[in-house]
């Protein structure tokens, strides 16, 4: 099947495979071999984890770019445009480059039934293979062991954190989920774990493969002060670093893990202190406690599991307002909606539920029932995100703020709506 427009390709890809999520590497590896993309000609950093992946990819991309390297970055999902998922030297892939990649993939697919994400991953690897990049930073879509990104061997593996999410696919304990994330480790190649509590399953996999594993709090550390922070690893330290430009105290841990990754690649991709400082100051990432200021500020956050909701609640508490917090929330049905609501309910005065589309969407009735299980009373609901945002906008008073969270599928349309309308002054 050949198409000339990106939108047509994407619609077709959504119908190609009988399952939206079908974890496994065989299909991708066979198509990669036919494309001639067998091994990366540049260092590869693979980033897995429950939370913090997007922030760490953005930090890696920002610091490496500041150091003068041409970086290919692959992330998912997107907020507004599919093109956001693939970047070369900070520039999103064009429609033309994506269509050309899809045409090459289709020419050698030979009947392989690829998922939407597998097409996405193959396109990214194909674009990077011909773009003359110095380093690829690849974000795992789900899990690690069987995610399409894992068809590529990582030179350094970064696991940001482990929490309960995607349990139907990855397991219902942190040990089981950790085992899936540890699938990105490669024998003898270094890895970094970027948060305090690491499941023993990750250490067991690292030991079995002879992986030199650095853990936050054991092998490297950070110490935040009022004026900045210090990163240290054994006798080595970098003092008086600028605060990461990404909001929230969790970004110190993310930035510390990123520096640990870059240190392991120092012989191949040396990075100066100046590049680290510039990268920390200039990093940007939409949809992660993204505050759009105004008399009534709007905050956008893709938090969609209990751990992320806990961090979001902490960030809200550190940025108090005189009025109320009005939340617009849309969450997919396979998430622990009650636990998410319980983590953040103390920070929210008024709840508005937004209906989402797609096979994974929860009905408004189901969402309301699960919010009730968390002791949350819902003020109102709307069949879509735009309608929910319009309700929130009609309720605001001076001193209030609006929080939009729960999913990429919620935050993306809300950001677009907010940018398009004339907000009250």
Explain what this protein looks like in three dimensions.
- The protein has 425 residues and is an alpha/beta fold.
- It folds into 2 domains: 6-282, 3-Layer(aba) Sandwich (UDP-N-acetylmuramoyl-L-alanine:D-glutamate ligase); 290-420, Mur ligase, C-terminal domain (Protein-Tyrosine Phosphatase, Chain A), CATH 3.90.190.
- Helix content is 39%, strand content 16%.
- The strands form 3 sheets. The protein has an 8-stranded mixed β-sheet, with helices on both faces.
- Helix 3 (53-66) packs across helix 10, helix 7 (174-181) packs parallel to helix 8 and helix 11 packs parallel to helix 12.
- It is globular, with a radius of gyration of 21 Å.
- The mean pLDDT is 94.
Q: Which percent bin holds the helix content?
A: 25-40%
CATH fold assignment of the largest domain = UDP-N-acetylmuramoyl-L-alanine:D-glutamate ligase
Q: Using the alpha-carbon principal axes, give the shape.
A: globular
Which CATH class of the largest domain? Answer: Alpha Beta
How many strands, what sense, and barrel or not for the largest sheet?
Answer: 8 strands, mixed
- Beta-strand portion reads 15-25%
What's this model, at a glance?
By secondary structure, the chain is of the alpha/beta class. It has helices at 6-16, 26-35, 53-66, 95-108, 116-129, 167-170, 174-181, 200-209, 250-264, 273-282, 306-317, 337-344, 364-373, 385-395, 408-420; strands spanning 44-48, 71-74, 86-88, 91-92, 135-139, 156-159, 191-193, 213-215, 221-224, 229-233, 236-241, 290-292, 298-301, 325-329, 350-354, 380-382, 401-405.
């Amino acid at each position: 099947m050949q198409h000339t427009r990106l939108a047509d390709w994407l619609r077709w890809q959504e119908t190609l495979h009988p399952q939206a999520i079908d974890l496994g590497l065989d299909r991708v590896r066979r198509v990669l071999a036919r494309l001639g993309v067998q091994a990366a000609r540049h260092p590869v950093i693979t980033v897995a984890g429950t939370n913090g992946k997007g922030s760490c990819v953005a930090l890696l991309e920002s610091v490496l770019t500041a150091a003068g390297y041409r970086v290919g970055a692959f992330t998912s999902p997107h907020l507004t445009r599919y093109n956001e998922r693939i970047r070369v030297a900070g520039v999103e892939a064009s429609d033309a480059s994506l269509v050309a990649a899809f045409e090459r993939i289709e020419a050698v697919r030979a009947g392989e039934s690829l998922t939407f994400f597998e097409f996405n991953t193959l396109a990214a690897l194909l674009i990077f293979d011909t773009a003359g990049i110095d380093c690829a930073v690849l974000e795992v879509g789900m899990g690690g062991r069987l995610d399409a990104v894992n068809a590529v061997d990582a030179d350094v593996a970064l696991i940001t954190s482990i929490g309960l999410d995607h349990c139907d696919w990855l397991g219902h304990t942190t040990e089981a989920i950790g085992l899936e994330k540890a699938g990105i480790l490669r024998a003898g190649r270094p890895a970094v774990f970027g948060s305090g509590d690491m499941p023993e399953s990750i250490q067991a996999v690292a030991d079995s493969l002879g992986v030199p594993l650095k853990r936050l709090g054991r092998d490297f550390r950070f110490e935040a002060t009022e004026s900045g922070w210090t990163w240290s690893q054994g006798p080595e330290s970098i003092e008086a670093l600028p605060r990461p430009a990404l909001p929230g105290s969790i970004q110190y841990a993310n930035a510390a893990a990123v520096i640990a990754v870059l240190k392991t690649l120092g012989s191949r991709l040396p990075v100066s202190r100046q590049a680290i400082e510039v990268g920390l100051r200039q990093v940007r990432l939409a949809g992660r406690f993204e505050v759009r200021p105004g008399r009534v500020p709007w905050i956008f956050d893709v938090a969609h599991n209990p751990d992320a909701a806990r961090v979001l609640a902490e960030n809200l508490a550190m940025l108090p307002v005189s009025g109320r917090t009005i939340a617009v929330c849309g969450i997919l049905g396979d998430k622990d909606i009650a636990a998410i609501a319980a983590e953040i309910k103390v920070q929210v005065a008024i709840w508005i539920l937004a209906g989402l589309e797609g096979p994974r969407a929860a009905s408004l009735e189901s969402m309301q029932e699960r919010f009730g299980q968390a002791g949350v009373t819902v003020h109102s609901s709307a069949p879509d995100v735009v309608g929910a945002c319009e309700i929130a906008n009609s309720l605001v008073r001076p001193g209030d703020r609006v929080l939009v969270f729960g999913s990429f599928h919620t935050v993306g349309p809300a950001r677009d709506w907010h940018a398009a309308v004339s907000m009250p002054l």
